[in-house]
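Reopening this one. Same input as before:
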Amino acid sequence: MSAVRDLRVLLRLSGFRRLLAVRLLSQSADGVYQVALATYVVFSPERQTSPAAIASAMAVLLLPYSLVGPFAGVLLDRWRRRQVLFYGNALRAVLACGTALLVLAAAPDWLFYASALSVTAVNRFVLAGLSAALPRVVDEERLVVANSLSPTAGTLAATAGGGLAFLVRFAVSDSDAVVVLLGAALYLCAAAASLRMGRELLGPDPDLLQPHLLKALASTAHGLLDGLRHLRRRRVAADALAAMALLRFCYGALTVTVLMLCRYAWSDSEADGLALLGLAVGISGAGFFAAAVISPWAIGRLGQYGWMAACSGAAAVLVPALGLPFAPAPMLAAAFVLGLVTQGAKIATDTVVQTSVDDAFRGRVFSLYDMLFNVAFVGAAGVAALMLPPDGRSAALIAAVAVLYAAVATALLRRRPAPG
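Same output, byte for byte:
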């Protein structure tokens, strides 16, 4: 496979190899920590989970990405990136240990969420630092390949970390604190791995720094506004982003539904519910992988808008067909479908933005895209919290999501440009 061959070539570069090791350890720790938070909020025996609690947890996990992300780059261009990776991961290890203590002490929810928020906020700096450092360890000829393979490897590491967290949770009964400590240990390993690189290796170059921090932050805010104005003149990209936000909203609402079904409707114990959730996450991940395989071919045949419309239309039909019985087997099949159509549409949206937005505005538009993507997911969790009964069985929510999928498919077909 070409991807394996490309990765083998990149791994011969010592700087890339060491930076990738930091990414894999850091993102596997993210997977462990996020599963630990989810299982504590949803499956702890002493907690009566509600959709509102799940919505709060999702807000803690995702909103820092949206609010901090656009401004993280300003600071990353002022600090040595090797030090950001070291101190960021070390700080997260310490903060995660604090989260574990709060779990053991059964601390108030607001304190637990504040601790989790601090960990995920630092995460944005680490991930942005990894991306910003990549051109320093890979030559320009191989940069596109590295940009494709490195984040994909990180996503797989996060998935593997989540799987490891589930295994530890099953092995040590009621062990949310132990799982959090495992994440802290992996964060510490990532910090140690960063020390294998020289302080100057990852930049930035001192002569390229913006001299005034406040001026740099203000220019970032102005840049986001400029990105919005540019999108108004690029309707193809703006429409694709709006459609993707709605699809992400649907995915978020159905995610909360599955969480509640696993917790209360499909199992008699927290352990059984957790096992079902792990299975649903794995099956949805398989759908994401299938989308990565199918989408290039589908986009070539249908065009970006056509593939997004096909994904939306398939979801409009299959979500009610598989979801309304509220039975585990068809709903797990729906998890695969949702993983495939959501990621397939995202791949198409990424392509639309990359090809229709001017290069000078692309970074700012992707920052807005990132914010929109996460805010839509959190907003969906909030709406689901209002609509879902405690056991997660809501025909009204399933029907509303199906109608929204159908509306998106119809709108995309009407706005569909020529394929390619």
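So the earlier flakiness isn't reproducible anymore. For the record, The domain at 224-420 is CATH 1.20.1250.20 (Growth Hormone; Chain: A;).
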